[in-house]
Structures are given as structure tokens and as C-alpha cells.
Amino acid sequence: MTTNLNQDWPEPIVRVQSLSESGCSAVPSRYIKPPSDRPNVFSVASPSMNIPIIDIYGFALDQDDSLRQTILNQISDACRNWGFFQIINHGIRGELLDDVRRAWYDFFKLSVEMKQAYANNPKTYEGYGSRLGVQKGAILDWSDYFFLHYLPSHLKDHSKWPAIPDFIREMTEEYGEEVVKVGGKLLKLLSLNLGLQEGYLQNAFGGEEVGACLRVNYYPKCPQPELTLGLSSHSDPGGLTFLLPDDKVAGLQVRKDEKWITVKPAAHAIIVNVGDQVQVLSNAIYKSVEHRVIVNSDKERVSLAFFYNPKSDIPIEPAKALITQDRPALYPPMTFDEYRLFIRTRGPQGKSQVDALKSPR
């Protein structure tokens, strides 16, 4: 597979925030989605619908087996039927969640010149960015972002993280440490629900050598939100995603039964979703699900997406215990690095990437 990932972006980068703040009254053509991909009221689910909210505190209480089983059942149902759920009482301090989100909001309010010092390129994506794929002439999303590596530790470079506002590096470091702990706990629950040893998925991810990275998303105000998206429909390529959503402005939409559900975040909840690698490991018992982000004409949004991923060079394939005569292995082995390059070349493409990997039956 040939890519141009060692080169720069195929076109000059335009910061969406600068477009928004210029006072433009119309979305430039590069951001206008085809009619089939635009936000559409006719395909949106009832406002009362929401993804499951699961209180995971009780799982730590060894004395209450019935409560533990209830939590396992709730997570199993969410992974099989939704691909998304919110967790509350997850052990991460609410103050830390508020502070780290505010710090990143303040970063995006810095001058363009200050942010440009962290401008990224397609080779690693690390830094301040405004597009995801490297296809020339692609229709772009209405968002800017900051991407950084967290694990493995040799890829983590605090000097590439913003130094302003004060303590943003320290807060981001602490937040990453806490989310990694939650990721390890959830992989145990997912393994048990699949009938595997509780350490199976963690070991398949590389044991202590997992990968982790953070993408902080900034969605500026948009003059014509009905024509574009903050993030196009996609499933996440990695293992598990932990999203700290904006606590004031909704924007994440999840596809369920051919309708789009606008997620309503619970207070201090973390939104969890199954990535393509867990779909592969579970032989599609657990599903990664398409999701997208809508934008707003009078409100900006910030969210933090933390990706808990397999080690990059380990072949990922369905667990042998989940392969039967009636349900053969659906996917061939592929390392996460190989899969990630496949994704990064094209940008968000719904679920076509993981579906294209399915073995011939």
C-alpha cells in the first residue's frame, strides 16, 4: 500500500477557527458535505433516546456478586447492541475532568500564531491540526484538533504538548494516567463477558505495552451547520475510546437502527465506545459503531477523545475461543500500525474500513 504520509499535507492548511472568527456567512465549498451525509432531521432519533448510562462503582465491591453481575450484563448489552455507553462513578475526580477540559478550551482561545508553533504533519499527526486524511481535494470537517501521544512512554514528549495555559501539561498527564487505569478495568469486564480469561484482551493488546493517545477536538461556531459536520461518520480504528464530552453543548451522534441519536452526557460521565480492534478480537460479537459530530451556529464545543489501543506491531485477529464451525474467523490478522495507515490515508469513511477486512466466507 502506497501513501504519502512522509510528506506534508496535500494542500495549504486552513484553520477552521479562523474561518469561524472571520465572520463568514457561508460555509466554504470544501466543507459542504454531499446531501446524503448532511445532518438531516428525518434520520434523527427521538430526543428522549440516549446511549446506556452504567454506574460501574459497584464492580469494585467484592461482597455483592449480584451487583457485579448486573454491571457485567449492562456492559455486555451495550457492547453487543450499541457499541457505546456512558460510565459514571468511574473513579476519576470530577474536578480533574472540569479542569482539563477548561485548560484545553483556553488553549484553543490562544492566538493562531501561538498555536501554529505546534502545527502537525501527516507523518505522526502529533500537534495542532485541522484535517485527518491526506487525500487531495477531500471534503473537510468543520473542526480543529490537537493530537498527542501518551503511551508507549518513549513516544510521549511533553515538549510537544502546549505549555500554555498554566498546568495544562500536568493536568493532561494526570488525566491520561487515570483513563489508562479505567481502560484496564474495562478490558477485564469485556473479556469476562466474552467467556474469556479476564486478562485476555489486555494481553492481546500487548499487556503493559499498550498504545494510548489523545485527540482534543475544537468545533467552532458554524454559519451553516446544516451543510457540514464537525467530524464525519466513522468507527474508531483502535481498541476502546474514552470521550470527555463538552458539558454544555451536545454534538456527538451515534448511529442506531439507521437513525442518529444525539448523546446527552451525564454529569462527569465518560463516554466509552468499542473500536474496530475490539470488534476484530471479539469476532464481531462486540461492534464498533458509526458516530459523527454535528456543529452549532452559536456555540463552540471542546471534547477530549482518549484512545486506548493495542501495541502497534502485534497482529490482531479473532480470539481462538470465539471461532466455531458456525462462526468462523471473520478477519485475517493485521497489526494496528497497518490498519492505522489504511485509515489515515483516506480519512473518516463510515465503517467501510473494518468491513473491507472481512475474510471471504
TrEMBL record:
Span of domain Fe2OG dioxygenase: 209-310
Any one GO molecular-function label of the UniProt entry: jasmonic acid hydrolase
KW Kinase (keyword) present: no
Names of required cofactors: L-ascorbate; Fe(2+)
SUPFAM superfamilies per UniProt: Clavaminate synthase-like (SSF51197)
A Pfam family assignment: 2OG-FeII_Oxy
InterPro entries per the UniProt record, alphabetical: DIOX_N (IPR026992), IPNS-like_FE2OG_OXY (IPR044861), IPNS-like_sf (IPR027443), Oxoglu/Fe-dep_dioxygenase_dom (IPR005123), Plant_2OG-oxidoreductases (IPR050295)
Catalytic activity field: jasmonate + 2-oxoglutarate + O2 = (1R,2R)-12-hydroxyjasmonate + succinate + CO2
Single biological process term from Gene Ontology: regulation of defense response to fungus
Keywords from the UniProt entry: Dioxygenase, Iron, Jasmonic acid signaling pathway, Metal-binding, Oxidoreductase, Plant defense, Vitamin C
Keyword Metal-binding: yes
Family: Belongs to the iron/ascorbate-dependent oxidoreductase family.
Protein name (Swiss-Prot/TrEMBL): Fe2OG dioxygenase domain-containing protein
Organism whose genome encodes this protein: Cucumis sativus (Cucumber)
Lineage: Eukaryota, Viridiplantae, Streptophyta, Embryophyta, Tracheophyta
